[in-house]
């Protein structure tokens, strides 16, 4: 009898939640700090007050250097085809379900900036596979602005808010782009209505770069990944943007979370394009140039992703998530794309700075499989590793390597060099894309792009930009020239001097 009432007392007590310090001690008064008498200063011995202020003072961590404004959701990936002939990665095993975390983002704005930004949208997916984590860190288009990682910091500096005013400035952005003709294709995509998605559910995602898939026999295929939205694609027209910002500048987050809360789970189908290594040379552009689409290569569907859960802690999921193109699993490897190669370094590097050396142990980043590396210690380590065999090989340590996880061999030739790629074809696909647009999409593109070009006060930069668009397509360039009050004959003369390459 006595034992029963003791248990009851315990369970009643367990339901009462006391406010505590970070060390778990109950707090007596959370409204009044301790002072020296009624009118005296606060006391150093009020450790609850001091800890509370100290913790508050340290709540912010560095925001991402790009893609700071983002929204995350959990879900699952389910393969729909057997591609074991292409890849040995177990994430593609038919019948399996792999948990995922996805973070959508804008690129240049600060952490709390409006979601209506003339920006690509980040579409980063972390697959928690049975062989460790695999990340596809992509965007909503199959291409990018530049093709060499060495230009990325300059590209970002020119497009982020000005170093003087803290405000984005079209003069700075187009000063960079006037020296970057390879951006013409991406800029043409950026200023269409798709450049302003009305919802994260209404956009596709792309891995952009080529990757290698490797099967159990060691055969290599080059692939590109494409998430196709089952919700369709929809963007805001230029004349709708101002009203949309006025109504709700968090529209993409509110839309995504609203849909998930209502049980209307968004889905994307994963498609791949596949090339034999020998086929890379068959294009009239460089197939490993990320400013190019692999035109004419069919896509095959390999799986479906469903987002079905909103994280219950923004900071610990969306903010502390860490995606990296270098995070791959056996059966998926990097291609020689020069942008991808730089990204293989940059993400894990920035994350060690932004989140600390043990960032992969934060729950949102932690693999679902055991981690048996000999990496140890460092700030905020909670890995719980045991024993004094913190090295490998060891006669005591029984961990073994997995020969099936060894990377493929790639044949190389030539000398070390610093040279631009061949077959740049800077304007070809921008023109093809422009001509594929409907009349309304063309008109909206010209409206949106000319609005920003009209802010460019450097005449030389403005005409150079117009010549790039003219080189892509004469009608495109002529309409832009008209909308920016430029001389079409001067634009044409400049365009004629550009190499079609
Ligand atoms: C060499 C070129 C590039 C470099 C050096 C670079 C660097 C970075 C860095 C440092 C971050 C912040 C990561 C973090 O703090 O966790 C980031 C985020 C991101 N980047 Fe890049 N980036 C490059 C190109 C690209 C390209 C081509 C794409 C698209 C295919 C892309 C997509 C993203 C996405 C989606 C994020 C946000 C990931 C998230 O939601 O946490 N980046 N990038």
How big is the Rg? Answer: 27 Å
Assembly state here?
A: single chain
How many structural domains does the protein architecture include?
3
Mean pLDDT: 95
CATH architecture of the largest domain: Beta Barrel
CATH homologous superfamily title of the largest domain? Catalase core domain
Region (Disordered): 23-43
Family: Belongs to the catalase family.
Protein name: Catalase
Pfam family, one: Catalase-rel
Written overview of the protein:
- The chain is an alpha+beta fold and 501 residues long.
- The chain has three domains: 12-57, Cytochrome C Oxidase, Chain J; 70-146 and 194-368, Catalase HpII,  Chain A, domain 1 (Beta Barrel); 428-497, no CATH class.
- The protein contains 14 helices and ten strands.
- Strands 1, 2, 3, 4, 5, 6, 7, 8, 9 and 10 form a ten-stranded antiparallel beta sheet that branches.
- Strand 3 (122-129) and strand 4 (132-139) form a beta hairpin.
- Helix 5 (184-190) packs parallel to helix 10, helix 11 crosses helix 13 (474-483) and helix 12 (459-472) packs antiparallel against helix 13 (474-483).
- 39% of the residues are buried.
- Bound molecules: protoporphyrin IX containing FE.
